[in-house]
């Protein structure tokens, strides 16, 4: 795949013609859907009176839990999320009533007239309060190898510390939206901004009390998602569907930005305690880590997220004796959810923090300690029993240390710091090893339906969702390459549950891996039919030289025999011949990732198809007085296998990195004691802007690293590069540590806001060395 | 004063549009341009990301006839502009950039070429910001590129590709279809009549004044009327708080309030002067003002927000206020009979309270020429550099003796109390002390006597105090000699 291929929607993006859910022109009888939510974080709904509200002109209907025809539950995994509250109020922003009105004004007016009687209870907001109260969501899950606790007894050095990280709001530019159109006989169609149409479909069917075959969910593209629309899109879709079914009118709901921020889940805040044992050289001998996640009020995906935290707790390092514990804790907050990295960033953060402490303690270079502990050819078994194969850590290290000039720059930084009082620089190198596949084996499946039409054009249906990551472009490229057609001849259809059923979420970075393979499976079948047909057509049948598909070259809209090149036929012609010979031009593809297994009892198995590797070096300059900082330079070398689309993959890496920088530095969410979110709009919630990017930003893909047994030997890209941002956090910590000549470790959590850094520096200055 | 005009006229692309507020009109006069566009079936390219001017997804471009008779293009957040404010302007949206044959504008082409879109939702906003920059008269620098995009958020790309696209597009700013149609556009714009206007709906009345006199008369008649100038703050009442503004008086069309006079006594800046104009025109004369304006809001906001609006909204945050205090700015207000000149310190009376009578309007802000050897400086700390209200801000007016001792110092802080305030105890301590880092470090403890900051969404009390103390040192560090 040589020539550069642009994102398939790029021209639509830049001309404003790309259609998102709220852009769909709706019939004039479309109603405005509005959600009335709880204003208290904990309590009971004693009674309510909708009568005054119902009389507001323009209001068509107001629904409470009593009006739900089916199951009043919409939790993705467990039945612990009510669609509309019956009794228990569990967080501020929880849905109580739904209003359908002709205008937003009418809905607002009605909402203000709804009378409720509530009983207020004291809410639990922070992780530490939940732990104190023992509000466990589930029992603690443990992954282990060897006996860490015993190993500590013989470790020359042991450090104990904690690593805390905060909530992160997805801040997709397009807020949650759904447009529901009722049909005949209880059928309903929903255009939803969901990462998981099949689950959205399932929840709607359950709540409306109808079969899944009566619900169609369609998604063309999302205006960003990052995990925030994996389960969180369901509620808006369910609410819109309820209102549409009740009124028999089309209903649109698009959450207002502040409501979206208040109502939907975030990246889980983690409070992690760890103990690490190591020798004088810096080799890690034992590690005991305990993850505590703030799950919010319900299960959502918290247990799966902790599973990924556990399977990434050791990151790129071989640790002989290791004990990993994880617990999710309940609070009166929206249910925290999937967010790029899915628990891995929090898991990796702790071990990387441990390494930084070891380096400072041994007065060694942190990158050296990392290098010393990398998985190798011999030390290659993870704590959960999977072998780390095709390990590129060493070659990435070699290349990046050279290309970033890490050691020389570090020397220069130390000299710079000695000469300055108020400005300090820091540098850090951090690696990532990221397991690809859903941790739950059965989710690793995908379907496709490829239709070829008699004009030689191709419509590809598949279950993956385009959310900016370039999935549709890569699918197009795969089909173009398989069938030897120009990109323009191939259209990737919106993902529709009626065409591709029972799909998994587009998540876990797996979109192209799974759907690309399913699509290829479909084109393979069609190619086989073409080969069988050409066998007859070219009168080769009956001889020993019957044509097998691999002998055919699909290229330049022609099919040519690879040995006897005089045998050649145009693609459109062969397609027409298949049609007139009554051979199907449509094929259904399927893929399931091979050799995945995981035993939940022993927490051992092979959950991942392969690993993605990468490393980053970041240099920062920090103004100690104001906490203002700039990233002077970042170098990333990242493994995308044989990238299907290098420009798209580099874009993913750059974007993931900056999202991670936001998590590490400026993105802070606070709640007051009553559970009110303080940072509920971009006024006070600060994602990175253009001036926050590295002044020099070098992103390269690892060359000559084909990935065996994946689509076009490529690798997934979406989530792993998020973790490269830890290089910025530790570079900042290095700059701060220079204040005390690297004798005191900066006690600084995520996010390291300028306020937190200044307070940390202030505290360090008071400490003796 | 007639207020006969009950319609607005504007060029929508090349088409002259007219919206009349008669009995049939269903649009509220406080409909934002974004709400208007989203209500049209073929103009869905402009997106709502936040409805508060913090993301730029709704960026559109206004073209107006500039002083040199040429068209001037400005990128603005359409979520913060009310329909009456586009009267007499050309409104350009993403749909207007490529022609009927779908030939992309050079800025769109560059965005495609550099892979500058991923999910595409923020893209129209970035394209419009870049388009306005493309149409600017001077060759943009890297700094002006960053400045033009500071008001646009992207969550997918990490901005590097967008930055590259901008450099590619701006490398060669060849005339485009808008240049070709410039004459025609100007002629059409000139056909639009100006004049005071009044737009009435069932529950709202919106006055648009074009003279100060008519505005003062109205203010006298309707003392509770909501004044707005750029609307960048007032629009939030509509978009976020969902308020229905019953009576509005829009000053944005009053040209006499938009002038900057430079006199031997200093600068007289009309209350209607936009913050962007101040930033561009006062570069050499009031460098500290320009320094703070560089990190104030975004270009989209600064182009509509005015200095008078900033003072009149009496925001407790006021990134600008501490500096105005250090400059000893004087607020000039005018009522039906008299004019008053009020020093800024007296003008700010308390939390959301200013010294402005019900029938008065702010007309200008006077910046006295600073005394020769006075140093004026300011600092602002915010979580993010751009488009972020200060956590703590500080401004200083300083005079030193020949042997580097502090002969006079005034320190003003924002974010440390309900209003911007002078740090009295700290200033008293500093008089006569040597101007050096150690002095400023020592002075920090006096801030604790001056302020008891609060914890909120932006920072904790303890963090604010630590930052404020550091700003004392920072102000020294900025001016060590």
What does it look like?
Chain A has 769 residues and is an alpha+beta fold. In chain A, 29% of the residues lie in helices and 24% in strands. Chain A has 19 helices and 29 strands. Chain B has 481 residues and is of the alpha+beta class. Chain B has 3 domains: 7-190, Beta-grasp domain (Ubiquitin-like (UB roll), Roll); 197-254, Uridine Diphospho-n-acetylenolpyruvylglucosamine Reductase, domain 2 (2-Layer Sandwich), CATH 3.30.43.10; 258-478, CO dehydrogenase flavoprotein, C-terminal domain (Enolase-like, domain 1), CATH 3.30.390. Chain B is built from 18 helices and 20 strands. In chain B, a hairpin with a 2-residue loop joins strand 6 (197-201) and strand 7 (204-208). In chain B, helix 3 runs parallel beside helix 5 (160-171), helix 10 crosses helix 11 and helix 17 (437-450) runs antiparallel to helix 18. The radius of gyration of chain B is 23 Å and the shape is globular. At the A-B interface, helix 1, helix 3, helix 17 and helix 19 of A face helix 2, helix 3, helix 5 and helix 18 of B.
